[in-house]
Design brief:
Layout: H1 9-28, H2 42-71, H3 75-103, H4 113-147, H5 158-186
Helix pairs in contact: 1-4, 2-3, 2-5, 4-5
Length: about 190
């Protein structure tokens, strides 16, 4: 049974993407005042980057498992892994945005200026760009999967969009771990 009308996949993808990106840009741009989120002890705010790197690693694992499962024809395992990946992504983003709003902005880079300009910023820029591009791709692939019975999915663009989404997602999560390492391990 379809949960999403087939005719509504594209418009719903657009609406969800715009709303999601508006929330992200509002939080990242300082448009959401810290008073709008509940306060947390400092240790909770300090723990969020460490929890998020674990979530990122788990998401890399679930995306990889989902990819392998579908290549082996195991649709049930693929679906479970990809829905799990989306849940991990949503958890990551919720925690990241909460910390961003609660602390009043992004964490400054503690390392040398040369590393900041020539290593950190380019990696961060690609990570953010891929995360933004992934949002509509992931929504579209998930909504297509929920709008069609399994036997019809090969006749849709689900696999093509799913491959793009998964590839970019893997790179984005991997670069996010590099950003974490630069912020919290190297410096």
């Amino acid at each position: 049974m379809a949960y999403v009308s087939r005719e509504r996949v594209a418009p719903l993808t657009a609406i969800l993407s715009v709303v999601s990106l508006a929330i992200v840009f509002a939080a990242a741009g300082g448009r959401v005042p810290p008073s709008t989120v509940p306060t947390a002890p400092e240790w909770v705010l300090d723990a969020i980057p460490h929890v998020n790197v674990a979530i990122s690693a788990a998401a890399i694992g679930t995306i990889t498992l989902g990819w392998r499962a579908i290549r082996r024809g195991n649709v049930a395992r693929h679906r479970l892994a990809m829905v799990g990946s989306f849940g991990l992504f949503a958890s990551f983003l919720t925690l990241y945005l909460y910390r961003l709003v609660a602390t009043g902005g992004a964490q400054p880079f503690p390392g040398p200026d040369a590393v900041y300009q020539f290593v950190y910023l380019p990696i961060l820029a690609v990570h953010i760009l891929l995360a933004i591009v992934c949002i509509p791709l992931v929504y579209y692939a998930l909504l297509l999967a929920s709008a069609h019975p399994i036997e019809e999915l090969p006749r849709t663009s689900h696999a093509r969009f799913g491959r793009y989404a998964a590839s970019l997602w893997l790179v984005s999560f991997s670069l996010g771990i590099v950003v974490y390492a630069l912020l919290h391990v190297a410096y």
